[in-house]
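Predict the holo structure. Ligand: phosphoenolpyruvate.
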Amino acid sequence: MDRPLVIAGPCSAESESQVLETARGLKPLGVGVFRAGLWKPRTHPGGFEGVGEKGLSWLARVREETGMKTATEVAGAKHVEVCLESGAVDILWIGARTTSSPFLVQEIAEALQGTNIPVFVKNPLSPDMDLWSGALERLSGVGSLGLIHRGFTPSGSSPWRNDPLWRIAIEMRTRFPGMPFLVDPSHIGGDRRFVGELSQKALDLGFDGLMIEAHCNPSEALSDAAQQLSPSQLGEILSSLRLRRQDSDDAAYREVIDSLRARIDDIDESLLALLADRQAVSREIGRYKKEHGIAIVQAARWDEVMTSVLERAEALGLPADTVRRIFTAIHAASVRSQE
Ligand code: PEP
Ligand code: MN
């Protein structure tokens, strides 16, 4: 991969000097875009709610002094209007709380009509791919769009502030091919100690870049203090990242990868043939149950099937949660084919 796009800067703009000092520390690290939140949607009222419009001129100064592009979060039409009017912001992003609300996304889309400013859309708080896709659909036709994966509110105890559920982000990449797709390790990890490993994971999975929170004095930050890095800490992480290329022309590499891919294609074909056989049998069962006036689903039978499938999966060294998801989908399709 070429150098990943890195967007970095404080969770919140707090003062002109904090914004400029942070930007001056980030510029030499190769950070392309400076981020700072002006309006902060906090979980609890009464926290620091952001400096608002007055921070726009600080962003303009960052661009003028460092040449970095500037980015901020918009949570409604008013924010979009003042950002566009000021000319101080090059890139907008929509935060997780806002993506969760189609009303707000719609009003933002309307405020953006006829402009071509790039907009990144963070995932919604819940792992709902359709809500995320719907937000991108509402914004289609507006400038250029990108995605940011910042993890999902954990459903149980989790080592992460926000659960990465990488498979959802990977599926979204296939739904929106060609759109720049970044990962925000700061909001996934919730702790500066995790930012390095999560950034590496994002690059290993082929994401296009990172959005990382950095602050000139992280422990004094007015929001998200635990997860922000000083510019020098961020520099260490960025220089330790191993980049993987998307592809290679090397003949030996090509020979091995092509033969492995041929094996995978062959296995996929067998899997499809087995699924077709399974579907035929399942339809026959459906007809037979109908003739005898028997209900389509017998919960006890399905529990037995799942239990024995999971036992076999364990013996074969397959991950239980993946196998459970695959068989749940197969079962759902089978029930549909009997209706
Ligand atoms: C942020 O980027 O500071 C922010 C509020 O992020 P999120 O919308 O991912 O919670
Ligand atoms: Mn933050």
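Strands lie at 5-9, 33-35, 69-73, 91-94, 119-122, 145-149, 181-183, 209-213. The mean pLDDT is 95.
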